[in-house]
Amino acid sequence: MSIPKKGTRKIIVDGEPFIWLIRRQATNLQADYADGHLHVVVEHATEAGSVLAILTDRLHPQGYSLINSELVPIQLQDGSGEVRAWRIEQRYEITAVTPKDVALWIKQAMQIGWLPKKPGITFNVSVIGSSIKKTPTREKIRLNSY
Questions:
Q1: Is the separation of the CB atoms in 128 and 122 below 8 Å?
Q2: Residues 1 and 43 sit within 8 Å (Cβ to Cβ)
Q3: pLDDT, tens digit, 9 for 90 and up, residues 92-121
Q4: Residue 85, number of CB atoms within 10 A of its CB
Q5: C-alpha dihedral over 129, 116, 9, 131, to 10 degrees?
Q6: Are 59 and 97 in contact (CB under 8 A)?
Q7: Of 99, 107, 93, the residue nearest 58 (C-alpha)
Q8: What pTM did the predictor assign?
Q9: Which of 49, 78, 95, 102 is 20 to 30 A from 122 (CA-CA)?
């Protein structure tokens, strides 16, 4: 399976061309539930092969997830302490995924077994801090949501 070409970005890693994509619009799962993390998909730009799906530890900027928001009471100014309204505040800063991050993840994925030019099933990985780990195949990341 390949990723759609519209909206992809090009990157060169170790002399090899790749394209990568982050879905612009949040999926329902990312926006409405507690799975508001960005997903990145990567494939070789010139040769058909396996797709790399990266589940990042970065929060989706359009996510309204419970893990990134907090209800803060707005108290009346008359000193009574009465609360009549609440406002939603983000608890964590949104960190962008940069080409430098993608290049690092591509290199790490190849080190743990991703073969971008060899046809096969989607290679799923998860970002943990500054490194990645292979996700078991039973925890698939659905590509048709991209």
A1: no
A2: no
A3: 667 788 899 999 999 999 999 999 999 988
A4: 9
A5: 10
A6: no
A7: 93
A8: 0.70
A9: 95
